[in-house]
């Protein structure tokens, strides 16, 4: 980490706590440069609301060599709001602004202007209400980077949980877990644990889909017909995989300690455990992208925006993780 990196940070929904927690980041020293991609007036107004009168907010000069972050310094790549934002009040007019910030960050990461991207919480509902289909950051970033299959993984403490399916209704999960998709995801998880997390032979535990991992076919046949054959194929290639195991077994402390990552079949099978284990310090990492992207593990918390009560721990953790992954 001898070279100073440039990290892009997008606050996300302007009416939420994203601007607040970004300003919390700017109050610390970092060995790398932080560039906040947002509307400069939004941060200035939020500073006034929060009483942060000593922060120096200015436009970044991205033509210069990256320099370390100094506490109190807020370097901004300006992206204008469409309308003025009010704390806690969603406005469909600013949905395009949220995506414009992401577009600048992604383009910058792809062309080398930024070394990594850290995202604050976006509000999926208001973006969709604006008539823009938006499943979430993971899917949007995959589309922008022409990535066929992104993998959502959350990390907190010693636990890493990756997902086979993400933002799908539960009724659609089973049909989405195909042999091809599962194999691709397990390969991506294994590859990125090796390349980005420097684990030469990552130990990966895999959940079953059904209660008791199907109970030998009595509670569902996905484990027999889809999950087990894929695991066995990749085991023969040398991947260190175990499963399928019941989720209520694999997520007990006695079993978790044996794995570098656990792959869950759907969103609410794996993430409640991770968030119970490390909420506030958890980090969302998108695997399989050509860029490094981390994010907070929480939502926009509209009721806390501008109150000074927002917890910035997860954003600090996401930044630390992004820096680590750039090394």
Description of the structure:
By secondary structure, this protein is α/β, with parallel strands linked by helices. The protein folds into 2 domains: 1-147 and 289-327, 3-Layer(aba) Sandwich (Isopropylmalate Dehydrogenase); 151-285, Isopropylmalate Dehydrogenase. It is built from 12 helices and 12 strands. It has helices spanning 18-25, 40-50, 95-110, 124-129, 137-144, 173-176, 179-195, 222-236, 247-250, 253-256, 267-278, 313-326, and strands at residues 6-10, 33-38, 56-59, 73-78, 116-119, 151-156, 159-163, 204-207, 241-245, 261-264, 283-287, 293-296. Strands 3-4-2-1-5-12-11-6-7-10-8-9 form a 12-stranded mixed β-sheet, sandwiched between helices. Strand 1, helix 1 and strand 2 (33-38) form a beta-alpha-beta unit. Helix 7 (179-195) packs across helix 8 (222-236). The radius of gyration is 20 Å and the shape is globular. The model has no long low-confidence stretch (mean pLDDT 95).
Q: H/E order of the elements? A: EHEHEEHEHHEEHHEHEHHEHEEH
Query: Helical proportion?
Result: 25-40%
**What is the beta-strand fraction?**
15-25%
Using the coordinates shown, work out and report the CATH topology of the largest domain.
Isopropylmalate Dehydrogenase
CATH architecture of the largest domain: 3-Layer(aba) Sandwich
């Amino acid at each position: 980490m001898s070279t100073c990196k440039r990290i892009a940070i997008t606050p996300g929904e302007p009416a939420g706590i994203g601007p607040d927690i970004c300003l919390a980041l700017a109050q610390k020293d970092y060995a790398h440069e932080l560039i906040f991609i947002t509307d400069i007036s939004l941060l200035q107004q939020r500073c006034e609301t929060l009483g942060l009168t000593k922060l120096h907010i200015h436009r970044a000069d991205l033509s210069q060599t990256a320099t370390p972050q100094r506490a109190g310094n807020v370097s901004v790549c300006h992206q204008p709001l469409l309308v003025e934002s009010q704390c806690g009040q969603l406005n469909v007019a600013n949905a395009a602004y949220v995506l414009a910030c992401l577009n600048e960050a992604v383009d910058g990461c792809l062309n080398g202007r930024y070394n990594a991207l850290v995202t604050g919480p976006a509000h999926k509902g208001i973006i969709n209400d604006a008539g823009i289909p938006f499943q979430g950051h993971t899917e949007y970033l995959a589309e922008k980077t022409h990535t066929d299959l992104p993998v959502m993984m959350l990390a907190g403490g010693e636990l890493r949980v990756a997902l086979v399916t993400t933002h799908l209704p539960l009724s659609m999960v089973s049909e989405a877990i195909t042999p091809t998709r599962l194999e691709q995801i397990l390969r991506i998880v294994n590859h990125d644990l090796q390349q980005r997390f420097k684990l030469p032979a990552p130990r990966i535990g895999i959940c079953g889909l059904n209660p008791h991992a199907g109970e030998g076919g009595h509670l569902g046949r996905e484990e027999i017909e889809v999950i087990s054959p894929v695991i066995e194929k990749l085991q023969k290639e040398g991947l260190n995989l175990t499963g399928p195991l019941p989720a209520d077994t694999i997520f007990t402390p006695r079993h978790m300690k044996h794995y570098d990552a656990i792959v869950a079949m759907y969103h609410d099978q794996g993430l409640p455990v991770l968030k119970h284990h490390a909420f506030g310090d958890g980090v969302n990492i998108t695997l399989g992208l050509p860029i490094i992207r981390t994010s907070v593990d929480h939502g926009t918390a509209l009721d806390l925006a501008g109150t000074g009560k927002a917890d910035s721990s997860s954003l600090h953790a996401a930044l630390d993780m992004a820096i680590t992954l750039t090394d």
